[in-house]
């Protein structure tokens, strides 16, 4: 239980004003629930062990009515209304009231995250980079089934529904790496749908966004690797200036991401080569077909080119 109190994904270790309100709400609710449990247990023991008493009929009826109306109607109505009022107030910070200085779009896919920064026409995947101290409105949607967007240390969760756009406001109040996770079961690899969230000081965030907006043109992969990329990978993957696929993650800044497959494996030289060869074993059922027929030399050459994809 104590392990749940901290770590990159703990709602009890908030890193924003809204998340702090939600954590407080959690403590209030669990304390109230704990007290109720205690009270009920004491009453139960009392009822078990007290000496039986006989009441005359009318008095017994009155006691019953009092318990029914007081304990069965008034108590729950009042306590649930109080919690509702408190809860709605606590979540107000997440409401996108007015214009936020930054707006992003995140689309859920089985089983990865597409992240768009409309200002610079910048697209990335499975990572969300934010400026510290700036309210960010995030418009979430889905390309297939219902997913849910949740970065517990920054705020509450919100469903990502196909055909609809929901908006949530986040504002990190400190630098750091947080972890998001799809919070609505969306298929067998639902657990492998992790979002790397990083809050940078605003100057560094601007540099990050600028670098992606004005990146140098990327040359296609050379030789056989290039042919493989153009004839297959390009159908699903976009690499700015090289290909325009939309079914898989945008790979333009692939080398700058910490993981592959939305948190399945570290994105280093060995990890990338393993992903290309055994991604169906690492993440069974994911939307990328096997490339078992491709020889190792070509895959290695392709991996070497992919490793250079960074702004
Ligand atoms: C039919 C579409 C499709 C084809 C063809 C395809 N991919 Fe993918 N690829 C995907 C999907 C979908 C994912 C996301 C899988 C997941 O994480 O659930 C993915 C993930 C990836 C990733 C990990 C990206 C990340 O940020 O985690 C890499 C790298 C990659 N593909 C490279 C390639 C290469 C190289 C080729 C060609 C040899 C290729 N893909 C062919 C659909 C495709
Ligand atoms: Cu999910």
Automatic annotation (TrEMBL):
<dbReference type="Pfam" id="PF00034">
    <property type="entry name" value="Cytochrom_C"/>
</dbReference>
<feature type="domain" description="Cytochrome oxidase subunit II copper A binding">
    <location>
        <begin position="99"/>
        <end position="211"/>
    </location>
</feature>
<comment type="similarity">
    <text>Belongs to the cytochrome c oxidase subunit 2 family.</text>
</comment>
<feature type="transmembrane region" description="Helical">
    <location>
        <begin position="67"/>
        <end position="88"/>
    </location>
</feature>
<feature type="domain" description="Cytochrome c">
    <location>
        <begin position="220"/>
        <end position="310"/>
    </location>
</feature>
<dbReference type="InterPro" id="IPR034236">
    <property type="entry name" value="CuRO_CcO_Caa3_II"/>
</dbReference>
<keyword id="KW-0186">Copper</keyword>
<keyword id="KW-0349">Heme</keyword>
<dbReference type="InterPro" id="IPR036909">
    <property type="entry name" value="Cyt_c-like_dom_sf"/>
</dbReference>
<protein>
    <recommendedName>
        <fullName>Cytochrome aa3 subunit 2</fullName>
    </recommendedName>
</protein>
<comment type="function">
    <text>Subunits I and II form the functional core of the enzyme complex. Electrons originating in cytochrome c are transferred via heme a and Cu(A) to the binuclear center formed by heme a3 and Cu(B).</text>
</comment>
<keyword id="KW-0479">Metal-binding</keyword>
<dbReference type="GO" id="GO:0004129">
    <property type="term" value="F:cytochrome-c oxidase activity"/>
</dbReference>
<dbReference type="InterPro" id="IPR002429">
    <property type="entry name" value="CcO_II-like_C"/>
</dbReference>
<keyword id="KW-0812">Transmembrane</keyword>
<dbReference type="InterPro" id="IPR009056">
    <property type="entry name" value="Cyt_c-like_dom"/>
</dbReference>
<dbReference type="InterPro" id="IPR001505">
    <property type="entry name" value="Copper_CuA"/>
</dbReference>
<feature type="transmembrane region" description="Helical">
    <location>
        <begin position="25"/>
        <end position="46"/>
    </location>
</feature>
<keyword id="KW-0472">Membrane</keyword>
<dbReference type="InterPro" id="IPR014222">
    <property type="entry name" value="Cyt_c_oxidase_su2"/>
</dbReference>
<dbReference type="GO" id="GO:0016491">
    <property type="term" value="F:oxidoreductase activity"/>
</dbReference>
<dbReference type="Pfam" id="PF00116">
    <property type="entry name" value="COX2"/>
</dbReference>
<keyword id="KW-0679">Respiratory chain</keyword>
<keyword id="KW-0408">Iron</keyword>
<dbReference type="GO" id="GO:0005507">
    <property type="term" value="F:copper ion binding"/>
</dbReference>
<dbReference type="GO" id="GO:0020037">
    <property type="term" value="F:heme binding"/>
</dbReference>
<dbReference type="GO" id="GO:0016020">
    <property type="term" value="C:membrane"/>
</dbReference>
<keyword id="KW-0249">Electron transport</keyword>
<keyword id="KW-1133">Transmembrane helix</keyword>
<dbReference type="InterPro" id="IPR008972">
    <property type="entry name" value="Cupredoxin"/>
</dbReference>
<dbReference type="GO" id="GO:0042773">
    <property type="term" value="P:ATP synthesis coupled electron transport"/>
</dbReference>
<keyword id="KW-0813">Transport</keyword>
<dbReference type="InterPro" id="IPR045187">
    <property type="entry name" value="CcO_II"/>
</dbReference>
């Amino acid at each position: 239980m104590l392990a749940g109190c901290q770590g990159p994904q703990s709602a009890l270790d908030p890193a924003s004003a809204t998340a702090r309100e939600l954590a407080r709400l959690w403590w209030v609710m669990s304390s109230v629930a704990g007290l109720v449990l205690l009270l009920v247990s004491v009453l139960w023991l009392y009822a078990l062990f007290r000496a039986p008493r006989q009441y005359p009929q009318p008095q017994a009826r009155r006691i019953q009515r009092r318990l029914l109306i007081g304990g069965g109607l008034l108590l729950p109505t009042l306590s649930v209304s109080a919690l509702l009022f408190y809860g709605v107030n606590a979540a107000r910070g997440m409401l996108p009231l007015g214009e936020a200085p930054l707006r992003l779009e995140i689309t859920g896919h089985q089983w990865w995250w597409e992240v768009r920064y409309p200002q610079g026409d910048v697209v990335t995947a499975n990572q969300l980079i934010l400026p510290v101290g700036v309210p960010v409105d995030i418009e979430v949607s889905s390309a297939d089934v219902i997913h849910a967007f949740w970065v517990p240390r920054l705020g509450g969760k919100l469903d990502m529904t196909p055909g609809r756009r929901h908006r949530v406001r986040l504002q990190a109040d400190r630098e750091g790496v947080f972890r998001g996770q799809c919070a609505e079961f969306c298929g067998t690899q639902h657990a492998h749908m992790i979002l790397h969230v990083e809050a940078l000081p605003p100057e560094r965030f601007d540099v990050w966004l600028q670098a992606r907006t004005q990146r140098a043109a990327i040359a296609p992969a050379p030789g056989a690797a290039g042919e493989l990329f153009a004839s297959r990978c390009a159908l699903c993957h976009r690499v700015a200036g090289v290909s325009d696929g939309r079914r898989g993650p945008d790979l333009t800044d692939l080398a700058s991401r910490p993981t592959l497959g939305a948190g399945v494996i570290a994105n280093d030289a060995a990890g990338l080569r393993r992903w290309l060869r055994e991604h169906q074993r690492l993440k069974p059922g994911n939307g990328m077909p096997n490339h078992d027929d491709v020889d190792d030399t070509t895959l290695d050459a392709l991996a070497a080119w992919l490793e250079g994809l960074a702004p």
